[in-house]
Amino acid sequence: MEAKISNLLHWLSQSENFEFNNAIEVIDAEHSGRGVYLQVQTSLKRNDVLISIPSSYQLNFHSVLYHISKFNKLISISNVTDEIANDSEATYTKDPRYQAYSILSQEFLLQLSSFQLLCLYILAEWVLLPEWVLLPEWSTKSSVVSFWKPFFDIWPTQFELGSIPTIWNCQRSNELTEYYNKLIQLLPYASLSHMNRITKLVQADWEVIHPIVDKWNQMFKAKLTLDEQFNKFLHIYFIINSRCLYCEIPLKKDSEDKIASNFTMVPLVDFLNHSDTIDKYCYPQVNPFKKDGVVGVGQFMIRVGEHTYNQLGEQIFLNYGPHSNDFLLNEYGFVIPDNKWNFLDITEVIIQLLNKTCSKDKDEMIKLLKENDYWEDYTINYDEISYRTSVALSLIVSKDFERVKKFMLGYITEDYFIPKIKSTLVEMLQHIILNSNNKISSVNDLIEKNEEQIPKRYFENIITIHQDYIKIVQNHLNKISDWL
Ligand SMILES: C[S@@+](CC[C@H](N)C(=O)[O-])C[C@H]1O[C@@H](n2cnc3c(N)ncnc32)[C@H](O)[C@@H]1O
Q1: Does 217 lie in the same domain as 69?
Q2: 222 and 83 part of one domain
Q3: Hey, whose CA ends up nearest to atom 27 of ligand 1?
Q4: Confidence check on the interface: ipTM exceeds 0.85, yes or no
Q5: pLDDT reading at 85 higher than 70
Q6: Does residue 241 share a domain with residue 369?
Q7: Separation CA 379–CA 388 (nearest Å)
Q8: d(CA 159, ligand 1 centre) in Å
């Protein structure tokens, strides 16, 4: 890994606009992978620059179009593909990308989302190009490598990202599928619905890009099967997902997918690990795009936040957002114990309770909740049972439609409903604890039968989420015992 990191630094240092504070270093740690640490006894203070990466070394919608257009001269987008010199005929015959990228029309590329374009491009440059150049017709020119190779080389392996539930759910032709299905069954409801949502996005994106991969396979006689290529795509999808940083993409300014497409991938910045503390450690800043030969969306900087770094060995963290463990597991493949943003989604439990009421009342309740935007998304965090959860529960238990309408409008407080819902709430919370305890026991059973095929952290992540659920619920049970 050290050699790969020094290759990356060497590659970046070819740009004058690259900065990496000489008090920090990238270190590979057992639990959280690569991270950035203070390695010189000094003091890094608010607004000091830690990392600064020019546009031309970031992977995003703009830079990918720029690089594709080097091989396909029919692509011409102002402010993106200008300033590309014409190649000689000799160059054309040396690099299979001229042929591969010739099937990508400007119209097709521009309507892709950032995710689709980057997945397709990274698949080509990282996975397929090294195979293409080994074919007899290109083999004498195998010195052809992607500009991005030093960046690709430091990305996590399939094994490192393997704890993400959508990967268990989507991976094709895998001997561990049966095992993964057992793990999926032990996920909490919030993780399961998150997994199902991302699974649909992954599958939809593959539907869009796989016709191109098919054409490349015919052009270059692929060695990998389509299933193997899908697994590589899945890996790339989650590399992007777990390492992308918010950044406005001018070409996506007016597009429908602009929120999901506004991101860039930034070498070195993508080594920063997550802390659940917001606004403390460091923060990103993107300097506006300057024309003069600079390609892309702007210089990406990381500056020190309000915390002064002066402890040798301290880790430089970045907050990825106020994310619960269910979210972190599904988007990034890790959890943090006692994460302060944890919450339980108890929509399923509330709906089960609702299903036990007589069907006429049930239909009316659903109608009232939907009409007033109180349908689903019932949550509990450590400190609070959400207002919408209290409203739904009060309605289901009391069946007092008129008073619940006033409760929704804030004319009466929950104090009125507390004595009515107390016993149902206690029963429901105890049931949640029982359910999490059962799942923890089942995960422990799986660990015993595992025979080391699956890394222990996959199981431990699920156990941590359930244990944290129990802490949240137990806190409410303690509070309820003080009521009235
Ligand atoms: C943006 S990358 C950070 C660099 C990464 N550690 C690496 O080795 O390349 C995000 C990934 O880092 C890991 N990660 C980030 N924060 C973590 C934390 N607090 N604890 C454990 N793993 C963490 C997760 O694997 C996540 O998918």
Answers
A1: yes
A2: yes
A3: 332
A4: yes
A5: no
A6: no
A7: 8
A8: 14
